[in-house]
Amino acid sequence: MSTQHGAEGGLLQIRSLTVSYPHAGAQLDVVRDVDLDVGTGEIVGLVGESGCGKTQLLLALLGLNGARAQRRGSIHYRGRELLGADPASLRQVRGAEIGMVFQDPMTALNPYLTIGQQITEMRRVHRGDGARAAERHAITMLEAVHIADAARQLRRYPHELSGGMRQRAMIAMALSAEPRLLLADEPTTSLDVTVQAQILSLLRELRERTGIAMVLVTHDMGVIAEMADRVAVMYAGGIVEQAGCEQLFSQARHPYTEALHYCVPRLDEPPPPRLTTIGGAPPSPAARPAGCAFEPRCLYRSDICRRRSPALLETTPGHWKACHHDGPLGKLREAAA
Amino acid sequence: MSGASAPLLAVRDLRVSYRVGPGGARLQAVAGVSFELARAETLAIVGESGSGKSSIARALLRLTPADSGAALFAGDDLLQLAGVRLQAMRRRVQLIFQDPTSSLDPRMSIGESVAEPLRVFEPQLGTAQRAARVLAMLQVVGLASEHLTRLPHEFSGGEAQRIAIARALILHPVLLVCDEPLSALDVSIKSQIGNLLKDLQQQMQLSLLFISHDLTAVRFACDRVLVLYLGRVMETASRDALFTEPRHPYTRALLASVPVPDPSAARARRARPPLQGEIPSPLSPPSGCVFRTRCPLAVERCARETPALRAVGDSQVACHRAEELARTDA
Questions:
Q1: Chain B residues with CB inside 8 Å of A163's CB?
Q2: What pTM was computed for the model?
């Protein structure tokens, strides 16, 4: 496989990562042969629909796919190989080096512990702080995520906070051991749109201030446009296109990226009489087509697409796509117009 | 709009509250909401969680008791119906939920699920007639006869929503209440179901109450929009008036919060700070205008006096400063 040099000052290099689960006597790949780099301080957006493998990819970075999962390939983080690393060193990386924020803070936070107990634990385990120092730090962290009256909020339980406050508390917790990389899985999907805007702005501010890198998983191209420096589009377990954010929006090269782009009408354009659609639905891992996984839904397919799965190739510097179609796109744009 | 003919549904000063905790405190989920829905019209009710939009739907369908108010529907008050007349209403008013898979009985085949309303409301139908109606309805929503014997878990989210739509429409209701019908669907599926709903609305001349927090879906699907905040109407207007000239500061903030899939537009947006804070607890709503605690334009009067919903331009707006804002825009 080719290597990618999109990221200066590489923090994380993922190569040929495959995650599979046994199912009915076979191995089902939920992540297939993924290459992805994350640079220091870079926000990489990972976009795709449910079941495309984006969450499994994040979990693989932390070794959290579960006992039945098989992982192959390599996950290189600051000179260390994480794939196959022993549990003790993985525990050290989780939290201290790589923090994670989940979609639903209510299920990710422990309902029996106060916010303060959960945040200080990070600091005590990973940075060896004493109780007083950890609490002082927790207050600083809550203030950093703009939670007012931080000292009092530390004594509260997750259910006493609003959805937006819980998500802020989870971000504070993920950042309290000062990781270099934050994995955020749909961090704003369960929030209201005005609160989503606040949390996105907070994440951007934290990156500016601390230089933390992020992998941001979302299904929302709007969130990608708001946040990402670079974008990887996933479909059926694999990356089908990868480019700088501006480039991906101005010159999408993969038909699936085009679909993600035009299937959602924009509020800053006149409303269309009909929504642009593509037919079908993403394939399940058990019933993937032999060739390109997107072929059955693709407007540009040809014979070769059914026979051979396209490799992810760099078509122009920094722009990668996995598609046999070489001509221009634009069918959906015309349909939308 | 309603025009000369009487509206299909006229809701007057609807109030819904829930008892919370043993102390008997009451949470006012809907605090005096009025609106009308014309025949074959689609009205969106938008707002964030806790705005009371689902409570309105549940009260109209009599799934939650209303404290007071009226909902005149074809000559009857939906909130007063009982017995046989309530049963008859259920046939004419149908509902689609957000999560299609959990709204279908997991042990019933799709054919049985879609046939069940017919078994209840048209028991005189023979087996063959019923089967023919079910198959015809499934075809209308884009499914086929081979799906009849399958169980809900064999379907994707988009297909399950098609099935839920088929079940809701098989009795030819006049009013369809859709509670976040597209929110659980993936991007490439959402547009398929959005088009299907709009086509069916037009073909069957349905009146739709479209409850959603998704403003892009609302703008596509609806003729008119009602913006709720903490159980009160902030603004109501035709779709085009609302999206091109939002009058209420809350409507403006909502529209400005939707991320635009365009990096250069996103950069421009970052210059404006997002709306601060979150929706207050309905247990202790702010005095005066309920939005004032987050409103960038709030003045002293907003804490004292509840703004009345009144005409400003082509919209109805409940904001003391709406006229002033309209002048600044012009």
A1: 49, 278
A2: 0.90
